[in-house]
Amino acid sequence: MEVVGEASNGLEAVEKAETLRPDVILMDLVMPELDGIEAIRQILTRYPQVRILALTSFAADDKVFPAINAGALGYLLKDSEPDDLITAIKQVYRGEPFLPPSIARKVLEELNHPAKPPPTPDLLTQRELEVLHLVAQGMSNEEIAERLVIGEATVRTHFSNILTKLHLTNRVQATLFALRQGLSSLNEADIAGEDEKSESS
């Protein structure tokens, strides 16, 4: 077993995979420039014969499943024993998946109880959609209340309901959701800003 190279970030990992053509890659998932999950995708798109073992500090679902979906053949936590690492490398090299028991349980649970479909705008009332649209335009609760001719407390209630229904936690996430779903656009925000400037001038 020979270490043929090391990379300090995801982009470098992709480049080293091309020049060194290793049999097995130990891929960290949290790296600058390009995260490990995207690096896995890019490497396997170009060199599908390479075996990749994700090596990370995280056992969270949002790390495990994307890494496996990207094509990692194994997943190992950094606090694992050295013998487990050697076993994992050999197993992945043979083309056999390697998952420690704690990770394997997560995978089985996901297979038995697949994640709920992502929330959609259909969950919101017409008034909540209006509030979400204005939040995405960068308006404060006070400005939204004035625009919709409702109380500021009512705006807060609507926004709280929006966060609950969409499983979000703050205005930034709500804005991103609205933009992704086409409920608002950055152009609208720019136009609104220009209108306000022209009115005040």
- What is the count of distinct domains? 2
CATH domain fold name of the largest domain = Rossmann fold
Radius of gyration: 23 Å
User: What is the H/E order?
Assistant: HEHEHEHHHHHHH
Name of the CATH first level of the largest domain: Alpha Beta
Query: How does the major sheet shape up?
Result: 3 strands, parallel
Shape: elongated
Architecture blueprint of SSEs:
Elements: H1 10-20, E1 24-27, H2 36-46, E2 51-56, H3 61-70, E3 74-77, H4 82-93, H5 101-112, H6 126-136, H7 141-148, H8 152-166, H9 171-180, H10 186-200
Parallel strand pairs: 1-2, 2-3
Protein described:
With 201 residues, the chain is mainly alpha-helical. It starts with 9 loop residues before the first helix and ends with a helix. Helix 1 runs parallel beside helix 2 and helix 2 runs parallel beside helix 3. The chain is 57% helix and 7% strand. It folds into 2 domains: 10-112, 3-Layer(aba) Sandwich (Rossmann fold); 121-192, Orthogonal Bundle (Arc Repressor Mutant, subunit A). The chain has a 3-stranded parallel β-sheet with strand order 1-2-3, sandwiched between helices. The chain is elongated.
